[in-house]
């Protein structure tokens, strides 16, 4: 739901939006243009959320494109030409509209919808009236905002459009806690003659101070009598002098009045003004004191400024500069040399004077190992950059680095690289207190992601209890134990979809142990009295446990490990590691999360790489640039996960995928590993989506030599899945001993040269007769194509018998794919009839009648054809011998 008002919102338009957002749940306020200056000042002090039009369009592109909004609420205008263009378009598409405007008789009204407009002095009055009826308790700041808006639009209740309702709502707001003293500051009023004279005195009596890089002005004066509106005078001085902080100190009679305003975070005005019995907020406040001279007040302010000033360290204060960089076209070998010479563990990558990526020592060493020393660094750099501006605070830099788990962050000024901050820089700046293990930032993050309650709601009791037992066994052996990978991914998807999870959570569980996985596996198997199988080469084992429901649950237990690949496409070598490194080696971020199982910390989600965010946003993302080069089968897995979940391969990952495909890394993988991944794709509910995606990305061409994915091929593949569905529903016996992988290859390879077919068959371990069978079907289809005009001939069921007698089931199905639609029904009729056809005579009967050798076979064939064509009925066979 969207709430908006006219361009360049004033107090009334914005306040009415805020009030409406409290009535309409899950609504977002969208503003076009810059707010009016006095409103902007108010928002500088009070952080009230809203979206700028351009930001909203960027963040909600799909929703806008699909008109995926329940309603639009428009306040303080009913003129369609005064609202954001994209909202105008939504309204024209028929989205429901609620309108709250005042002075409907005086204004343009050209938006059709539910019109709640009335003749009152302020649109805020209308919306707040409805809000108060709902008995919602309002924060003082909101009540103050609403009061200011009503005052401004009624001219402090002197405009002729003011109504009793405006007075009534204002009174209710004051009762609730609205701060009347702030009205005069923000409502634009002409200063009186006395106020102007005081303004001039203050303007000419200003002390200027500089604290670090902060400009502070103290304006002071003394008058004999009280003059109201010091807030208004202060506001105008603040706008005129434009310091970072302004104190106005005026002695009126026996009392001294102090008003202060600030634009920065380093100084807390509330704390300073409390010395004089006043207060307010960090950026605005006032006080009144007696018994002091003006200079004493000023001296006290200065002293407190120095003692309470907390400098905010920024990126520019701690960054290392200048930065050692490398150009995007320079080689991996050159980067390796630079890192060796300088000791740097990462280098920013520059192209056309712009930062385009970053390359780490780990990336470079892997690339060198894979023989990529002459490749440009842009081929292996990470483009998923986290950067800071020179003005970014130290706390924010710490948070970015901790949450993204990165060791360095480039610093930009106006888009140009000017420095870099490393963990060492942070440690120096914080006297070594910044801990990159489980820091308070990460600890807070993990606490907020404890999934224990969700697991108890969603998981089947047998699975939940088993996981708790595994965690308990980990405690008994003093080992940290985690469930990882697809189980965690599917659990989070079930939580997000609010399903009960029973169907979506697999009964195969992957467990990682920080310690000896084999020792732990044996212990678990013994406790559960389950079957245990060991794979010592990979430090893994499998346990097969029969639960109370008599279901077999497979538990794969691995030692936390780091995999490295000696050659691209080979199976990995394994080193012992920790859970964090174990997760980093995984294929995609959505599969790189773990849940701790140990008693006492059961259910804590370990998400080191912002994986949960990718899962929520539907992104497939690799964790490091060489991922597809080290294991090219991940290319096929990326397609499978993308299509299974309806996700999208994010741009950087897609670029790396396309580069790996183009450079022939799929060709380096054994056919058996490729086949395994392809068969998994074909097991998906809608495999054709993945096949199309592979065709579009030219993956098919690199999997099967001289095989070109074309619209004709795609049409045949789509028909294959339709035909297979027909066989499953109507002719299921023909699916016996049929492998979908072979059927798909029949279609894909039908135009591939025979020499290439031999290589493909050998690579993928196809049956010896695969090529022969494929050629047979192609030959028969060619013959049928020539006979299409001879309707009398081809519409006889015996025709199909003559062509397909001796065919295997896979051949029969492939032929159905190739046949034109007008022949399919006749072909299916033939298959149904031949499946049930049984002769009432045998060769022995023919022998008795004097038939010999080939005559017997020929006669039986003749009788079969007549039965198929309906020329004789079952049981009449004896009449023909």
Structural commentary:
It is built from 41 helices and 29 strands. The chain is elongated. It has 881 residues and is of the alpha/beta class. Helix 15 packs across helix 16, helix 32 runs antiparallel to helix 33 and helix 37 packs across helix 39. About 2% of the residues have low confidence. The longest helix is centred in the last third of the chain and has 20 residues.
Layout: helices, strands, pairs:
Elements: E1 2-4, H1 11-23, E2 28-31, H2 37-45, E3 51-52, H3 53-59, H4 61-65, E4 71-75, H5 85-92, E5 96-100, E6 114-115, H6 123-133, H7 140-154, H8 164-176, H9 183-186, H10 193-203, E7 206-211, E8 214-223, H11 230-241, E9 245-252, E10 255-262, H12 269-273, E11 279-280, E12 284-290, H13 294-308, H14 315-318, E13 326-327, H15 332-342, E14 346-351, E15 354-360, H16 361-369, E16 388-389, H17 394-404, E17 408-413, E18 416-422, H18 423-429, H19 440-447, H20 452-458, H21 461-477, E19 480-484, H22 486-497, E20 508-514, H23 517-528, E21 531-535, E22 540-546, E23 552-559, E24 561-564, E25 573-576, H24 579-584, E26 594-596, E27 605-606, H25 611-617, E28 619-620, H26 627-630, H27 633-645, E29 648-649, H28 651-662, H29 671-682, H30 687-696, H31 699-703, H32 711-730, H33 740-748, H34 754-764, H35 770-786, H36 791-794, H37 797-804, H38 809-818, H39 821-836, H40 843-848, H41 853-869
Parallel strand pairs: 1-2, 1-4, 2-3, 4-5, 5-6, 8-9, 13-14, 16-17, 20-23, 28-29
Antiparallel strand pairs: 7-8, 9-10, 10-12, 11-12, 14-15, 17-18, 19-20, 19-26, 21-22, 22-23, 24-25, 26-27
Helix pairs in contact: 1-6, 1-7, 7-8, 10-11, 15-16, 27-29, 27-30, 32-33, 32-38, 33-38, 35-38, 37-39, 37-41
